[in-house]
Amino acid sequence: MILVGVDVGGTFTDLVLAEPEAGRTAIHKVSSTPEDPSVGVVEGILGLCRLADVAPGDVAHVLHGTTIATNAALQHRGAECGMITTRGYRDVLHIGRHQRPQHYSIQQRIPWQETPLVKRRHRHVVTERLVPPRGDVLVPLAEEEVREAARGLRGAGIASIAVCFLFSYLNPAHERRAREIVLEEHPDAFVTLSSEIAPQFREFERFTTAAMNAFVGPEVRGYVRRLEGRMRDAGLRADLHIMASNGGVATAQGVAERPVATMLSGPAAGVLGGTWAGALSGREDLITLDIGGTSADIGIVTGGRFAEATARDTWIAGFPLLTPMIDIHTIGAGGGSVARVDAGGAFRVGPQSAGAVPGPAGYGRGGARPTVTDANIVLGRLDPGNFLGGAMTLDAAASARVIGELAAELRLSPEEAALGVLTIVNANMANAIRGRTVQKGIDPRGYALVAFGGAGPLHAADVARGLGVREVLVPPHPGITSAMGLLTTDLKYDAVRTLFQSSGALDPARIASDFAAMEDEIAAQFALDGVDPAAARYERAGDLRYAGQGYELRVPFGAGPVDEALVAAGLERFHAQHRAEYGHSFPASPVEIVNLRVTGLGPRPKLDRPAPRRGGSLAEATLRRAPAVFAGPDNKPVRAETAFLARDRLPVGEPIPGPAIVLQTDSTTVVPPGCTLTAEPGGNLLIAL
């Protein structure tokens, strides 16, 4: 069975082909096509098939990570959409909550007010009311008002509509009937129900999540359809699955209906790929650092399990979203990040990026601004004649010119300016990692840093030094690790129900009923996907908090019959988790179970561990020796004779002292002075600091 993983980045589209039964893997990179990523995806798959001598029709599965939804949200380039909501709640999307994103700033942006997902004139209200705790109907749905709202939105040219009623998470009947009426009046509309997208309490976040689904939905649906069409036209009969933010994959049809689930599609695949790479070295406590052309994505893996974002932490483009996501932090730091002196005279790097076109000056595509990549070229850390395995020649003179212009503005030498660029961008990444570790009670010194993405291995050792981390792991194919991560996961669906029960008055029968209903809901989706019911696995969890707290902690519930003992064990886990997270717990205080959750996992074919490496000798691996520039004890540039090594010829298990630079097709690894490099049998490079 032949599997293909495709991850679309801002600069390059990364591809990997795997045939687990034959134990072979092939990789490929092509330039992304921002105007329509599906063009680059299909061209890349066909090119990969040619490299691997595989007929396109023999590919069984294509797994895809995409940034379509994320980019639409970040650039506010979504559909003009409308909303139908409960009378009196037209402005929930605008008002939000009493907290402001930045409590003490008088100049802050409020995204949901400055760039609303649904303009006020397109928010229509109708008469209806459901009431807690069961969602009983207090006021029936005024169906004619829904019909009038649908006609009004159709007349205004609105083709994407979110239906968001108060307390619909307890009873979706009114929203479902409203959808039927909207489609009767507006058959071509893309309709989103808040009770299907985020069936849980918190009206502002639920309404916003539904609105975001409506906002990005038409573009994602159009992209998926174009991609499926191009694949068919190219002779690809493979079944298409797309990476979701929760760390699993979903069918193309499922993504077309719930595109908000793909908000962190590409970065999520990176965390999975980093976890897979960590397992090759027997490491389960990991910091994943994925540095591409535009951004750096940071994930935390503890005990082999990635962290999931809480309702408090799940924000995209400044909007709070209630959708399951891997806890990933993204900053504007990548190979294309632009270095500049700002209006106040400060030396800054990023978040602005040169992107794929024109890209860094060193790419020779007309770039005229100094970037991180140009700094690496000037410092001799990238080989102009051996970039992308020789497929691309870098313009070192152009890099020297733009870094020289920056240096003149800073009154530094070109090497000092280039080293300053790297110092700033590395410090930005180290600070971001501290925010996800130290500030959350995690000591990063006990973790290994897994570096990937085209630029990750270039910067990892310096970032690790800034954190006190002692080990850096570089996966076998760092530049396409996110694409490889796509081949390591299962079909994954999440279901959630709001419960609101206190530890003093728990109803295990109700909890058991809700868990069973959610498992049945996911099982029905698995049946549509052709998953063997006997192979499906289900994991239970709850969102718990102490009475009076504003947010919850996600706590796993064990398998087996749902009875008082199982629920009590969940409460004990909550106390322990609260103590680990915040340093204290209150075992005598009442605990609320706010939401119940079920995650369903449907097994899929996966990437195997690579065959053990045999390697060569250090003499065979040494391509040349040349000077490269590193930071000295006083942070001044120091030229050092550096070994340029071919990764595929490195001796296995033999420590190699730095400085060294390891070249391969999809990335370059920098081993600074004072570090030691070892090629491991499992395929990783281990840099010991």
TrEMBL record:
Leader sequence segment: none
Protein name per Swiss-Prot or TrEMBL: Hydantoinase/oxoprolinase family protein
InterPro entries cross-referenced by the UniProt entry: ATPase_NBD (IPR043129), Hydant_A_N (IPR008040), Hydantoinase_A (IPR002821), Oxoprolinase-like (IPR045079)
High-level lineage: Bacteria, Pseudomonadati, Pseudomonadota, Alphaproteobacteria, Acetobacterales
SUPFAM superfamilies assigned: Actin-like ATPase domain
UniProt superkingdom: Bacteria
Residue ranges annotated for the Hydantoinase A/oxoprolinase domain, each copy included: 206-493
Residue ranges annotated for the Hydantoinase/oxoprolinase N-terminal domain, each copy included: 4-185
